[in-house]
Amino acid sequence: MSLETRVAGLALLKWYQDAGADEAVGTDAAALYAAQAELTQLPNQKQVSLRPQVPKAPSDEDVAAKLKTDAAALAASYNTLDELRGAMESFEAKAQFPAAHNLVFADGNPQAKVMLIGEAPGEEEDRQGLPFVGRSGHMLDKMLAAIGLDRSSVYISNILPWRPMANRTPTLQESVIFLPFLLRHIELAGPRLTVALGGSAAKLLLGNNQGIMRLRGTWSEIEIADYKVPILPTLHPAFLLRNPLAKREAWTDFLNLKQRLAEIEID
After folding, report:
1. Which string of DSSP letters, residue by residue, matches 230-253?
2. In angstroms, rounded to a whole number, what is the distance separating the alpha carbons of residues 34 and 76?
3. In principle, which of 108, 188, 212, 213 could form an S-S bond with 155, CB 3.0–4.6 Å?
4. Helix (H/G/I), strand (E/B), else coil: 221
5. What is the pLDDT of residues 122-181, one digit of tens each?
């Protein structure tokens, strides 16, 4: 009896044992028991598993790591904003956002000196395919107008281009997957100043876990390859709608932005 035949027979025997059979009847079954004893005594023979080997499913962390690697390779291979948009449109991670209908890439002037980066599209943004066009967008327009800016003089995007289910805050894992696209987006747009709107954008871009109330109002710097750009964290317009008293801090931050922009224009 060959080893392969014995292994197949042992697998059948194991099935009978698991089903409750505890006695061998007939010469064929007795031969299988003898083969089982013989296999355990074969020298230098690896133990043969009688159970089918089920491939281990990749963990969420493994999937996220692969998607981030794929995103980095894709982002680096494109040299225009239109090309980058097309790559993001077809990127496989879109499947993780079943509520999303339209890619929300950017709005405003891609040649502007200031780039504003929010968190993720909401329902209205998803419907129109543009960032900050709902209630938060109207608040942002008022904040910009207060320092003499509008959508023709700034460039606006998000850390996520797809709407999360129920308009929830992006998870860190989702944000990290799309970070290579975001950094390439900033690099290709080439703003002189960036503004992180809200804690998710600020923490991701700064690599800092502090809350937005601690991060806001202080300039830092993003370094992307050989490109460096100052960044100012501030409060998200949606937060201001829920907490009107916080508008005072946001106003201070936007005055800070106005001053820094004036200094750049003098240069």
Report:
1. EEEEE--HHHHHH-GGGHHHHHHH
2. 63
3. 108
4. strand
5. 999 999 999 999 999 999 999 999 999 999 999 999 999 999 988 888 998 899 999 999
The arrangement of strands across the sheet holding 107-108 comes to: 107-108, 155-158, 114-118, 193-197, 227-234, 220-224
Q: What pLDDT score was predicted for residue 3?
A: 44
Domains of the chain: 1-54 (no CATH), 60-266 (3.40.470.10)
249-264 residue pLDDT tens: 999 999 999 999 999 8
Distance CA 243, CA 225 (A): 38
Are residues 48 and 7 in contact, defined by beta-carbon separation less than 8 angstroms? yes
Distance CA 191, CA 177 (A): 23
| pLDDT tens per residue across span 174-213 | 999 999 999 999 999 999 999 999 999 999 999 999 999 9
Decide: 257 and 217 in contact? Cβ < 8 Å.
Answer: no
- Amino acid identity, position 220: S
Three-class SS of residue 223?
Answer: strand
